[in-house]
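yo, HTH-type transcriptional regulatory protein TyrR is done. seq:
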Amino acid sequence: MNHKQKKFAENSDLLQFIIDQSSCAIIVIDKDEEVIITNREHERMTGYSTKYLVGMTLSEMIQEKIIHDATTRKVMQRKETVVLEQLSYRNDGESISRMVKGVPYFNEMGEIEYVICYIFDTGEKRKLIEELTSSNLKYSMELLQLKNDVTKKLGIVYRSPSMKTVIEKAEIVAKTDSTVLILGESGVGKSLIARFLHSNSNRKNGTFLTVNCGAVPDSLIESELFGYEKGAFTGALARGKQGLVELADGGTLFLDEIGDMPYNLQVKLLRLLQEKEFFRVGGTTPIKVNTRIIAATNVNLKEKIKEKTFREDLYYRLNVLELTIPPLRERPEDIPLLVETFRQKFNETYQLKKEISSEALVFLSGLELKGNVRELENLIERLILFSDKKNITLSDLYEIIDFNIDHNSKMDFKLKNRSYKEVFEEIDKQIFTEAKRLYKSTTEIGKHLKINQSTVSRKLRKYGI
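structure:
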């Protein structure tokens, strides 16, 4: 490197000037997962300045919900360029869908020194609800149902970029006969995705069977899965019995909560995946089957491998194709459609005609539900069943969920000639103003509102409370 080149390389102001001229958002992360530099376009896209981000770690960015996942880590793991669609958040809390290209920079030792991320906005910034009228929601649902007939039949509704990616990937995966591992928290809809895979596969006319590996006693699960021969054990049927693997021949067997499968049975499942054959309990003749296996779990199987409660070879046999379903808190755009779906469902079930008010819907869209879609469904059922009003309001929501917030506090706002964002922020500010009056700490507010403490802190800063 000559003198001019060295002078150029050492001029950090010049480097900042150069990357600021780029129309592409750029962020550079070092090997210690710390932000080194960002550019002006990144600040425009996210609202976060270089000064704020520099020195922050990836873990801190995820914790503060600046990003929900780190492309950089995948680059470091794979040691190659990675391109991913990523959901992230602006400093005002608005979610944005971005395409991130992570490029590794190797030092003289062949180790990754930096990861340069080039970020592209993949569309207009989405709002949780475009309009708050129930007619608009119904119209949106009709369009969605016409477009996704199969997902409609299975009860899958979505509009978020992250779920769109999951469904698009599932459509590709469904056409194969490979084993699939579905990952996701409890209640996100793993069983629905498993049914989706079956319904879109060449096996759709075959049998689809489900077994929850954590719900069947260890003493019974082997015979349930693989069946048994006559006289295999005391109490066995004289003619023997087919297991679920055999009954699903030509179709699909969904093994839910695969992480709970007994360790001694895992080797038998491994043989089934490798050889497409198994032995019944008490049997000596292998039985050949053409059964596709789809598995799901809400636990970290790699941790279970370290604990020696899950076989590593089985993990890699199951994880041929992987689908990860994001939790509901990372796709709040889906909540209004889910609420409307469940409202219609339970109105029909209980022969009622309940509506959900706009302010209640906005508040539901901001909830962080640990039980995800399942918890939201249970909540809407309670609202429909126990509210004595035709139009369910925010106060009804407080009573059903028991947020312990003063019901006498008045929350006023007007909808006419105002955008969703204006209305939402007004309600949101009132909620956190009232919560700050009632509770002493952000931890206590988070506990009663059932949201993360970091979300509470961010909201209080945002509204200057």
